[in-house]
Amino acid sequence: MLLEVLIRLVVVVTVMLLASTAAFVGRYRLRDTRLEWRERVQEVAPITVVLVAVLLGNSVARQTVPDLSWMIGWERTGQIEALEGSFIVWLQSQATPELTAYFSFSYIYAYVFLLVFPIVAYFALSNTRPLRELLAAYTLNYTLGLVCYVFVIAYGPRNMMPELVDALLYDTYPRYQHLTRQVNRNTNVFPSLHTSLSTTVAFLAYRTREIYPKWALVALWIALSVAVSTMYLGIHWAIDVLAGVALAYVSVTLSELLVGQWSVWDWLESRVPSQSEPSGQSGKRPRETRDPERDRAVEPTDSSGEDG
Amino acid sequence: MNRNALSPSSPSSLPDERVSRRSVLAAAAVATVPTSGCATRVRSVVDDGGPQLSLTLGTVPTDDDRGAIRIARHLESTLEAVGIDVTLDVRQSSEFLEAVLLDHEFDLFVGRYPVDGGPDPDPDFLYGALHSQFATEAGRQNPFGVTDMALDEALETQRRADGRERRGAVESVLAYVAERKPFEPICRPIEHRLARPEAIDGWADGWLGTELDYLGLESVGTAGDGSADRLHALLLDSRPSRNCNPLSVTMRDRDVIVDLLYDSLGAVERETGTIRPWLADRWEWESKPEPNHDGTGSPRRTTATVTLREDAHFHDGEPITAADVAFTYRFLADTALGNAPVPSPAPRYRGRVAAVDDVEVRSETELSITVDAGSEVANRIATVPILPEHVWIERLAEYGVDPDRGLEDEAENTLDTNPGLEPGYESEPDDEKAAVSAPQGRWGPVAGDVEPIGSGPYRLADRSERDGITLERYEGHFAVPSFPDESADRDGNTTATIDEDGPNDETHGRTESDGSGEDGAQSDTPTASIDELYFDIDPSSASAIQRTVAGDADLTASMLEADALDRIPAAADADGSVRRLEARSPTFYYLGFNTRRGPVGNVHFRRAVAHLIDKAWIVDDVFHGEADPIVTPVGEEWLPDAEPDLTWDGTDPVAPFPGEEGELDVEAARALFEDRGFQYDEDGRLLRRY
């Protein structure tokens, strides 16, 4: 069952990726990418390693965190839920089969596409900074999100008020629960990682709007759909979504500050661990200054980040 | 708290009916935005040190038990309507049980009460549920904190007496429950399961809840390819994959997997509801009246002479001896084996084990067990899992338990299973070794996970946390076809053997001898015909139905929730590709009162609260008719013929719901509290003073 759902997911997302790459990235960037990919891979490798480590750590922590949080976590009482539950109920009162299908699609397929496509799109840029910021922001989302999950235990609307809120996704397409339970526990609702990761992509897409103007619009739309879908499908409360947006903001801001601060490669060259931070800063300069030269015309946000 | 803010001012606007409530709240959502400041003000007045009566109501989330949380939500709304401040506390099953059974944390709790055995359980389970001696304990026993001498006497009489006298005592217990409300039984669900007849066969009726039922199953359609038979069953509870300790009270309710892993002396036979010898090759029960302390009544003691099967082994190959059985009862009575300052009885099976007076090992395979109970219920002590002494002693040693320590004052091989009542059992604090700390129900040996070494027909092959658990047939078990068995009859047809066994069991409740002889006992042993049982953990009833219908799985092992049953396609029903198994459950939904806490200790308060549950509406709306509303926790055959009237006849005879269709008549409901001396303030809040 899980395999079947996974295969379907991979096929659909692959089709979406191919179509969007053709539409948004374009032939010339792909041609450059073929020439420069080694260099770019080298530049993004460190943060990729960090992200993968966090994801692996996350999957291990997922086994223990819920039990830990039942011990130390703050159990959110029903009060917030009762106040805003009416919003979720109102949202669901608008339900039609078409909307349910649309939001289910958003929650599963569009979401995965939204997270994967910018990796492709930013990899196609000579300047790897957007990609490094994206991966750093993902890492921060997962890390900070996990911390929230340790300290806050809460169930989503479908689990708390079954008489009012339907589990539209799982009722309509039970098979998806096999997929989502691999990634999430039903007590991990605050904040909504679906919202925070989608919003992160939307924030970064807005920053790179001069490079990928159409993608910025598409990303914004999908992020909005995903955020609404989490509530429409009865999985998250409005407060979880707001917290998700806040987490995205924090992650994007932090990643902007942190990316480019340290360079693993310089550190490896100097072989002196104690000098890693200052030398990383200075050693980074040539590469950083070289990069915007290529993309400066199309990426003002990046250079403004440099100035700050 | 929207509803809370709305309800006192406009009581009639609290419709529980799904559509209207939904639209009311949807409308309220629109109105909330401008008036939210106002709602907050109301709220802060309420919170302002006011003397409003407030309660916590615990239950489990929709994913764990949709019926329970829907009942709890209904009660939450009716309690709020009568002016009580309610906090709904939703926790996953294991945490819920910890709060209810070990911490006694909630004021009220809604759940499904687990009762072992077939659809018609013996009312003796109420002894463990209600006896005062367990009120201070942590575990499945008496979570309500009830203490009542008259109730204790009735419970003891039903345990010791037989026939009419026992019946009378059971009736008093039922009347006590109905009138004084330690808990309120709500409804008894019908257990639905789904199976693919092309994959398996062998269930006698719609029931599939006990070890013997699984032994009856046979796979079909794997003709002659020599491959191993494998049953792919879907399980809706992930706890067995996380913890296999048969004593962990938070990790299991009823648990057929533990039953398959751990054999007991006797096994419950579904059709007759009786207990047949299982690990015991035969047993003889001898009851003798024994004068009561004050010379009244006819309390009984029953002594069983048990002969174990000589061919039974634990999964590690060690033979099962009388010493293992004696150890089991001693260990269940005090899991610290006398090493802790106070005894730490096991948090499960407590009511049954408390009846054991004395266990005497006579030989390798023979022992006698003296039970403080009459012949009708004495053999219930035979349904606890038998644990291997060598394994558990080793495990206990890791916790600093010295098995010989508690036996110092005792004669060899005898034990006292009611250590709490006899000070002599307690260990002296000035012993050379420091006593271990063994908080009841929580300490490692009973709460932590174990490698399950039992003696059941299946043993653990593999498990993956929250994913699945695989049991493989234990070829050293006597219920396995390949097992070297001198008996001629080996066709393993359970349906037939149960029929043969019927007449025997009719008599066994009252006759002294129950063993029908060696040959008989062996020839009617059901056989485990399936090589491997794979319990695949599935997240929901909806998905489990979908997978079974699609042929992805052979069986749903867990009870399906009523809400999902309409997902079984009519076509699959019609062409016979799936079959529905249906049976009345021995378990029941209930509202538990923690009588240790505040207003809940007041019987008048409990009686008023019991009115606030519309059982008829719950059965219709929550269970779609797949449940029966109930007044008492046991089957109809135990109800009193005359007074008091405890029969459901369209409405609850003791605590009828004021209102209909789940909608509370708020004035009438508030009158129920006022008539009992409770007071309301001018804002319609029920005051805490009473």
TrEMBL record, chain A:
- Where do the TM regions start and end? 6-24, 107-125, 137-156, 218-239, 245-265
| InterPro entries to which the protein is assigned, alphabetical | Aur1/Ipt1, IPC_Synthase-Related, PAP2/HPO, PAP2/HPO_sf
**Subcellular location(s) per record:** Membrane
Q: How the protein sits in the membrane?
A: Multi-pass membrane protein
Show the ranges annotated as biased composition (Basic and acidic residues): 285-299
Compositionally biased, Polar residues: which spans? 272-282
Question: What's in the GO CC field?
Answer: membrane
Q: Pinpoint the Phosphatidic acid phosphatase type 2/haloperoxidase domain residues.
A: 117-256
Any idea what this protein is called?
PAP2 superfamily protein
Key words, A-Z: Membrane, Transmembrane, Transmembrane helix
- Stretches for region Disordered: 271-308
Source species, domain of life: Archaea
- Establish whether keyword Transmembrane is in the entry: yes
From TrEMBL, chain B:
Identify the SUPFAM superfamilies for this entry.
Periplasmic binding protein-like II
**Matching Pfam families:** SBP_bac_5
Record's keyword terms, sorted: Signal, Transport
Q: Does the keyword rRNA processing apply?
A: no
GO BP term, example: peptide transport
Query: Which CDD domains does the record associate with it?
Result: PBP2_NikA_DppA_OppA_like
Q: This protein's superkingdom? A: Archaea
Question: Where is the Solute-binding protein family domain positioned along the sequence?
Answer: 275-684
Q: Which InterPro entries match?
A: SBP_5, SBP_5_dom
Q: Name one GO molecular function term.
A: peptide transmembrane transporter activity
Q: Does the keyword Signal apply?
A: yes
- Annotated region (Disordered) at 403-461, 478-526
The record's similarity note reads:
Belongs to the bacterial solute-binding protein 5 family.
**What protein name applies here?**
Peptide/nickel transport system substrate-binding protein
